[in-house]
Write a structure and sequence with these properties.
Elements: E1 12-17, E2 24-25, H1 32-35, E3 47-48, H2 51-70, E4 74-76, E5 87-88, E6 93-94, E7 107-110, E8 113-116, H3 132-141, E9 146-149, H4 170-178, E10 196-199, E11 202-206, H5 213-222, E12 227-231, E13 246-250, E14 253-256, H6 264-272, E15 276-279, E16 303-306, E17 309-313, H7 317-325, E18 329-333, H8 336-339, E19 349-354, E20 370-371
Parallel strand pairs: 1-4, 8-9, 11-12, 14-15, 17-18
Antiparallel strand pairs: 1-19, 2-3, 5-6, 7-8, 10-11, 12-20, 13-14, 16-17
């Protein structure tokens, strides 16, 4: 085996797919209100998710695995911990942990390296341990594999604006997001791997709730041969992960959420290098499933298998139709029950190997997206 992946669309050979066992609704912590608003059916609850929902989620995850394996793709699975336990560090404690359905949040694959992220949720501090057996295996089997860990954040109260949500209206929240003012601050590097779009030599990082600029500076130092760009989507009041907002489908084509468009000054680099940005189809559903953290825009959280093949949630008929019209073979995957455990088809996976090399896809660098200095 080998670890090798530079983007999200070259032919897929090996991937990790998450599991739903023991997943919990986390107890209160400083950033929780940004993930679970007061109108959610999860507000005020914490502890294990109902067994019936876990079984339905795992059934869909297992079906997804079978489809991938039937196409010759090697699939590995994490080893779930007992997430329903309290955890303590010298700086904080949590009532429960979270789960390991969305490996995309935790693991960033860049070439022959897999990097465990410096995540900002206390309940997810130990989540990397579910992937530890796999990382050990890859280390033993691939002599070129680089097994890396970003600086472990302390996640003290100093990393959050503890009064952020006091008397905050929806209008006020939207204004704060446009001003890049989030409940997480710049005290220490914080990032979720799912906020980073890998396009060969260029890494586009969403500045939002789960990733701060200090983390981007750390990433630029860690990947000195790459160009790290800071981008944001001002119309998103809760910017959490880029893969339901800005999704590359094949070389030269990106799908953008039509209610969270990349600003013109930031999109110029794509136009200058011959990339087309199209609006994603509208979701088929007007609300997320019960007890789900994510928005209806998981419709565009697709997994690209190669330049001509893509997996899409089976009930998202508008997205299926759009991608079919773009010339893709579209594979429908039932996944609505799995949504509630941390996201869609892309969230539920992490790349290990895709064909291809590190290409310079943006040789024309133009003002707009911010290139962070090393």
């Amino acid at each position: 085996m080998k670890v090798n992946s530079w983007n999200d669309y070259d032919p897929l050979r090996h991937i990790i797919v998450g599991r739903a066992e023991h997943t919990c609704i986390p107890g209160w912590e400083p950033a929780l209100e940004a993930k679970i608003d007061r109108g959610s059916d999860m507000w005020g609850k914490w502890g294990p998710r109902p067994l019936e929902t876990v079984e339905k989620g795992n059934e869909e995850l297992d079906y997804f695995v079978n489809v991938l394996e039937s196409r010759g793709i090697r699939v590995d699975r994490p080893t779930p911990l007992q997430w329903n336990q309290s955890a303590h560090t010298p700086d904080f404690s949590t009532q429960t942990l979270f789960g390991c359905m969305p490996p995309r949040d935790v693991l960033l694959t860049v070439g022959s390296e897999i990097l465990s992220a410096a995540m900002m949720m206390r309940c997810r501090f130990w989540e990397y341990l579910a992937y530890h057996p796999l990382m050990q295996k890859y280390f033993d089997e691939d002599p070129n594999f680089r097994w890396e860990q970003a600086p472990r954040p302390r996640l003290t109260d100093a990393s959050y604006q503890l009064d952020y949500f006091d008397n905050l209206t929806q209008t006020g929240l939207e204004e704060k997001a446009r001003n890049l003012d989030f409940v997480t601050n710049e005290h220490e590097p914080l990032f979720d791997a799912a906020d980073i779009l890998r396009l060969g030599k260029d890494l586009f990082c969403q500045h939002g709730l789960t990733t701060n600029r200090r983390a981007m500076h750390w990433l630029q130092r860690h990947f000195p041969d790459h160009r790290v760009h800071s981008i944001n989507f001002p119309d998103d009041p809760n910017p959490i992960h880029i893969d339901a907002t800005f999704v590359p489908l094949r070389p030269g084509l990106i799908m953008n959420n039509p209610v969270r468009r990349l600003p013109p000054e930031q999109s110029r680099i794509f136009a200058a290098n011959g990339w087309q940005i199209i609006d994603a189809a509208w979701p088929a559903h007007d609300r997320a499933p019960p007890m789900c953290y994510s928005s209806v825009w998981l419709s565009m959280n697709v997994l690209v298998i190669d330049h001509k093949t893509v997996c899409v949630e089976a009930s998202e008929v508008n997205q299926l139709e759009q991608l079919d019209g773009l010339g893709f073979e579209v594979i429908p995957i039932p996944f609505r029950h799995a949504y509630s455990f941390g996201g869609g088809l892309h969230c539920a996976t992490a790349d290990v190997e895709r064909e291809g090399t590190c290409e310079d896809l943006f040789p024309k660098q133009v003002p707009g997206t911010q290139i962070l200095s090393n």
